[in-house]
# Entry
Amino acid sequence: MVTTSPLRPRPEDFLELVQKGKRGRLKLYIGFAAGVGKTYRMLEEAHSLRKRGVDVVVGFVESHGRAETEALVEGLEVIPRRQVEYRGVMIDEMSLNKILKRNPAVALVDELAHTNVPGSHNKKRYQDVLELLDAGINVIAALNVQHLDSLNDLVGRVTGVVVRETVPDSFLKRADQVVNLDLAVEDLQERLRTGKIYAADKIPWALEHFFTEENLTHLRELALREVAESVERSSFARAPLAQPRERAAATNSRVMACMSSNPPRAAMLLRRASRLAGRYNTDWFVVFVETPNESPERIDAEVQRHLLANIEKARELGAEVVRLRAEDPVDAILDFARSHSVGHIIVGRSHVAWWKQMLGRSVPLRLVKEGAGFDIHIVSLAEDEEQRP
# Structure
């Protein structure tokens, strides 16, 4: 197994972060698939921290029946899980309240994208982690790259597998340390064949579907790039303020996504904007222009529901959502962009009739024509077209 990160952080490095400030610190182990060793490395680090006198507990770790992982849990304090009956089945969930009451220095939390059983305090486990951090508890956690929300469409296209449980990219930006656990594709497939990842009855299907060489190669490249960009963002954030030229360039690279009241596949547009903002390490906006025809009293309840859902998705991805009222959406978009140092404007491909587009009446074409000084990104939202990383 090869661990890749610019400085290859040691447990002592995270301990230094733990000892700073009142807000809990977050360390993330990222991998490109199950079985690369994320949970194993978390547990190894927990033992190392414990030997140094750090109060560390296992908040939630899933061994998936792997003997080597279960062996590493021994000797660590494990917070009892809460058992919840749901539709006649008893489900084990992480106990947020018990961890908060125990108040350790460091808690280990696995399976961040997990959806909690209905009726839980938070809908998703990563939201439980945010509460731990806000309470001053430091967290070491693990995540597979395919669970990042902004990569959802891309992962579905390159692997043919729809990932239904995701974590917003804004959570990744909260991390104080990000470590990529890398492994050769051939070695990972061998681990799968020898029963070190899944039970024997699941191995043939996994090898034929998700764990193909092509899929794993794509995911491995995504993980390497994601961690590299995360480290670059962190380095920029820590850079001295006496770099006005670089910081001015970043400010002028702000990203803005333009959203209508009910755009088809709006989530894809938002993820594309989130990815672009992440690459530039900059703020980004989602702007909805409410024209007289799109006032609340003139659009039906179903459209309103979609609009609110898209606004919530934008906020989950880390955008600042802005609602403008104007008769001309293009003028409003460009005025906002100029006043907020936006450099990139993202808009979906127009569904206006071709003859109206020829007359220059579609929003994308007008933005291209009138938006001098901006980079205009017209995104195809067709399901059968491949989305580039």
